[in-house]
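quick one, two chains, predict together pls
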Amino acid sequence: MNKDLTKYAATKKKSEQSVLIGGIAAIIGAISFFTVPNQIGLILGAVLFIIGIIFAVMGSVKFNKLSTNFKVDVVTELVTSFVDEGKFDPHQGLPQGVVYATEFLKRADRFHSEDFLSGSMDGVQFISSDVKLEERHVERTENGTREYYETYFLGRIFRFEFNKSFEGYLQVLEKGRPVVKRKFNKVKLESVVFNKKFKTFATSEHSAFYVLTPHFMEALMNFEKNNKGNISFSFIDNHLFIGINNFKDTFELKMFRKLDESVFEEFKRDLFVIKEVVSELRLNNNIFKKE
Amino acid sequence: MSTELLIVVLVVLLVVFPLFWYIGTMNSLRQLEVKVEEAESGIDVALTKRFDVLTKLIGAVKGYAKHEAETFENVTKWRAGLPKELTLEQKQEFMSKMDGIQSGINVAVEAYPELKAEKSFLNLQQNIADVEEHLQAARRLYNSNVSTINSKIVTFPTSIVAGMINVSKKEFFEAETSKREDVEVSF
């Protein structure tokens, strides 16, 4: 990977230089267009501005292409190394149906998902992707109205196979409440710390206590501690949905940020979440599975 | 302020408001009592399920774990299932006996690898783990409700209403120390 990393770093530097030079040229062009009084100054300024913009756009396109190639290579290699039947597709995402099936995310006016991951770990099937949900707002201005979109969810959604069968629906949320109309009741569990950190909603109190054993509650709290952002869990029909709203676009290269092993480690950490869920929440424990 | 209005305000403050508070508190205590009863019946259901699965398990291991089978038959005078009129203490005792028998079986079957490999036995073991988890959930839910009502009963001024309507502190369903932790069943 080190050899590839050097190659990627070199291409990344070139595209960044292209964006930087293009940007500077465009700024100088714009300044001379507006400040130099004669015609030559105007023409030169306009030409410099256009060339600068073209240069910057080319650099940006090159960077995006490199970013996609990089994540395909790196994430695919990482995924196949610790996940069975691992698949990664940066252009595909979770379907809307799966995202809204979590029942803790309201319908968006603009939906986008990418970086689809799937596979199984210790026999536990999972799918996941980056999701961006935006809400449309209309604001009154002096000249009429202005429309803008506000992002209310940007992060990752996971769906794991869940090893316990139980009646009803259960949600454990750090913030907010379920967005569907079911007969949810707020459940207080024995752990004061857990009740402080999460709100538990369940259609059956018994099911909440059945799923949320003391060990499971501890594991959920540790998960929350290890992952920044607003965390939501939903248990529906033998599936565990997890939403991490951290306003972070996972597996993306950042422009002008040094490309070294730390980026590689960050990607690894983002993927490690899967392992953490399967082992810490003991989803690989089959003793509750009905045949 | 006129005298009439003053009287009305005084009546509201001294009679109507305390009356509404009394009714509200009484209802909330009664609702909590119902919740405790519901949770206790949840324990009954889980205990019955466990009894049924353990009966099947005993049937499967009868030839191997004779001692446990005999013990089980001796302690289970309730062959038709769990009687409804059992006290909480009797239920706890029943649960402890089942715990003992189950651990006896687990130890006994260690000596019989052919039994451990049998699919039907494995299924029963899985069922046992699941009903055990349900029993723990029912117990925790019951204790959580008991904790809520007990803390209300001892808190002033709710304690006054509790005394007036004869709502008393409820008993916790205690588990053995070894059962307080998560169920760990290893085969």
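Chain A touches chain B at residues 164, 188-190, 205-207, 209-210, 213-215, 286-291 (CB under 8 Å).
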